[in-house]
Amino acid sequence: MRGATHARWAVCAVAVALTATACGGGGDSGGGGASGIVSASWGDPQNPLEPANTNEVQGGKVLDMLFRGLKRYDPKTGEAQDMLAEKIDTTDSTNFTITVKDGWTFSNGEAVTAKSFVDAWNYGADLRNNQRNAYFFGYIEGYDKIHPDSGEPTTKTLSGLKVTGERTFTVKLSQKFSTWPETLGYSAFAPLPQAFFSDHDSWLAKPVGNGPYAVDSYSRGSQMSLRKWDDYPGSDKAQNGGVDLKVYTDNNTAYTDLTAGNLDLVDDVPASQLKNVKADLGDRYINTPAGIIQTLAFPFYDDAWNGPNGEKLRTGLSRAINRQQITDTIFQKTRTPAKDWTSPVLGEDGGFSDTLCGDACDYNPTEAKKLVAEGGGIPGGSMRVSYNADTGSHKDWVDAVCNSINNALGNDRACVGNPIGTFADFRNQITQSKMPGPFRAGWQMDYPLIQNFLQPLYYTNASSNDGKWTNDEFDKLVDQANAESDTAKAVETFKQAEEVVRDQMAAIPLWYQNGSAGYSTRISNVKLNPFSVPVYDEIKVN
Amino acid sequence: MGRYVIRRLLQMIPVFFGATLLIFLMVNVMGDPIAGLCGQRQCDPATAAQLRKEFGLDKPVWQQYLTYMGHVFTGDFGTAFNGQPVTELMASAFPVTIRLTIVAICFEIIIGITLGVLTGLRRGRPIDTTILLLTLVVISVPTFVTGLLLQLLLGVEWGIIKPAVSPEAPFNELLIPGLVLASVSLAYVTRLTRTSIAENARSDYVRTAKAKGLPRRRVITRHLLRNSLIPVVTFIGTDIGALMGGAIVTERIFNIHGVGYQLYQGIVRQNTQTVVGFVTVLVLVFLLANLIVDLLYAVLDPRIRYA
Amino acid sequence: MPEPRYDDDGAIASTGAGGAMDLATSEGETLERTPGGPLGTGPEGKPRSLWSDAWRDLRRNPVFIISGLIIVFLVIISIWPSLIASGNPLQCDLAKAQQGSQPGAPFGYNGQGCDVYTRVVYGARTSVTVGVCATLGVALLGSVLGGLAGFFGDGWDSILSRLTDIFFGIPVILGGLVLLSVVSSTTVWPVVGFMVLLGWPQISRIARGSVITAKQNDYVQAARALGASNSRLLLRHIAPNAVAPVIVVATIALGTFISLEATLSYLGAGLKPPTVSWGIDISSASPYIRNAPHMLLWPAGALAITVLAFIMLGDAVRDALDPKLR
Questions:
Q1: Is the ipTM above a cut-off of 0.90?
Q2: The predicted structure's pLDDT at residue C45
Q3: Architecture (CATH level 2) of domain A289-515
């Protein structure tokens, strides 16, 4: 029978396919990781894992394990401390002489020299290399030649960088910037080995750095295995055998996997699971302040939001938001109602103040209603608060903020959330000045300085001034503060500038975000640094 | 037969180009992806322009499409924004999704056909009505609700399965996700088999077989089942393509790093190259599955001959 | 070797089982048995149409009665939701977030402290609108294109069939994610538009098949011989006899469209507030399934019942219109 023969053929083909794919599967998928190894949740980094090309937390986590720069932010206090820098000298806040410590090498044995830094920075600044964080080198002289606003770069090196010895180099800035050395803990300033330049593709497939861990294997999009580098010369040697970072499609699944015992560490416990944390994890849950603030920004390019009494309208809206209730209910106290425009991790000395916003951030429906009316009412009678709907639980809090405003104003259509499907589209609408109303703005600090919370966000035409707010007095005060060589005085001047932000309500501060993490019984000594990234090297496996 | 296959293959060419062009245009409607690459900052214009140039986004759409298709024929599906070649993503994603699809198809065949035969032979009895109603319920509840409920109950509350699938995604971890993925099709297979069996049970050849005293089992397996399964086989065949492309929801719930996950990621990051590349392969799978099903049809039903 | 018994396309099986997409319905079942003849003869010997026969059947079918009643109820509350829900679906008090069933709020409150019962009632309008409008659009576009392809055959048929294949090749959920993720409208029309755009091939294939069958009937040949124009042939003779399978598949598809809207909302690309929709509510409740399952189960239940009602209706209609199964 012809049919039967064919059918048998088909069965064989299926059987072959089955075994083939089964073999392809292979590998050990057991439990929470091998002995001494921490398995932790991860998200797929958005950009290639180059130091000057990584601008989000997921890639940042890896760089933090793989690299050590001239400075390192203390995992506890956030203070910038010398790491590879023996000394950084300056007399005029413009010319710096940097000496690299002796005895450091990359995990492939190559010594870390002044050249390792200068080459890496030149690479990062060069327009031809498409580095997303190139602007970090913008203060160095010659940046406009290697990274022109239009046209091709005319040079391959920053003229402000000069190697003067095996372990020394000089940096010339294009303007005075007294606290510039403090920014050097950012991963964009990490040194790079020669292998990065000579065989770039294989470096990307298996990055080599000078940090406490070395990459053992990396299958992009699913898992990276980092192992302790035994010959690491620094004092912060890894306390565990290694870390396996596993990519999860969403953080709810990661949390579920943690409770099922298949994962050791989740560093972003979703808001929806916070109620279960006590029952599931007991005290294996940490919740520590991080340098992140959430705000609502306004489209100042739209006359409706920039009217003569606009600051009353905006302050009124700020007072219509019941921050305490939202942080308690939606975020289960993992966020703290904002009292200023910076972050508690800066500390009082660093410029944080819990009284700066004062009444303007206090919930008071009566006052709110009055102020909004004095400010001319909500433009068009109804506003849409935009946010990107692809990640995070923004929908929950935007809806809650809108409900709070609606209840305060007694109008159930005064405010409504406007989800935007993709982050790229959200950013496009911002950069093209097309936002229909207030929109979500969040700021995670690059380095723990009050300058980083104000200048990039509110200075005229600054890179993250998404609302295009502009105020001469604010700009003047920031310029003054930057030129100030005395840190305490500089901080005071920045705070004066922040008061201008308050009086104009340039953005509504909502809450400070904490870092939260849950972990399994297999590990201990889990901490989060002020950037809400776990301090992997200190984790101990029981 | 040969001429028929050649004609079908020729017909596939315009469909292939049409479908890829369609998806290419759709992804382009989404707008400029570069702004999403610079975090909470505005990309500096020079870097943005440079990136656009690198990904070919500075050219008009028709030119982008032609360049892309030109590359595809040399086996180059472009590069994702994280610098990884799309072919590499495919190599890691397709085996996972193929395993998931195999599990789903097995469920369709084993459970779907069994239930279909059972109900088809007992038309109108309580068991028939019950199963029929059950299939309707399965069709009515959206897959993501079924998936979330099963994950919660079996994975979290009772601890029977792993709530999330590990990156290697071996067969045993894919059982429940496969069942969820198959659920709706499974219900259709049941209903299809049932109608087909019921119809054929009244046909002359079955009556003849019974009349000449063949045992009931032999009548069912040799005569009834073989002829009734023809439409079922075609359904399952064409379902392969749909299952592979429709796994977005299931893969998301169970943390499976397959095609659906890559597509979702690609869409959220507006990564044209990833989305178009994966859809191109899916369209090919869909077209080939249809062709194979049609040929299988001729094999199973000797009355049909292709010229 | 004899020529294939089917049309020149040769796509016998894929025509028959084309419903493999997510919009899949049981048209696979339907097409195998396209009703052929327009006339039946009743027991009294009086000629009766397929339609009156079907109606007689339906009236006695409990499945039809139950699903019909549910649908009538749904339509009524879609038009006047305040009949059974006095609250305001947009009025929410965060202090009541996630609270369970209690007097005044039989279904409890959702994560924002909105009354779940009120939102479930008001959500019916969105789902019914999306389902009905998408089905009408798909049926219209699909039967026009499919009918033309089937009637004119040859070149037209080849082009339209390839076009159908092209749209069939795009995975539906994927297309929805891509097309809807950048839409900023708060109405249901983009969602409906997308469903029509990617849903028509399914109906088109069915319509094409049944027009081809109807075209070969003697009375059509006779009318053509008598010099009837193409439009008269199509509208007066073919369409009435080819429409039954389209109706069957469209009814079942209605349910799947409603379900698809919810799935898209779950993936973050469906409707937008202040539209009240089951899909949006299920989506925002899904992370809380462990602690507050009521927030998910009520809208999901309402959705399932609605989809079930339409699929059961389609099932009953198919049984009634399919003379072979009597």
A1: no
A2: 52
A3: Roll (3.10)
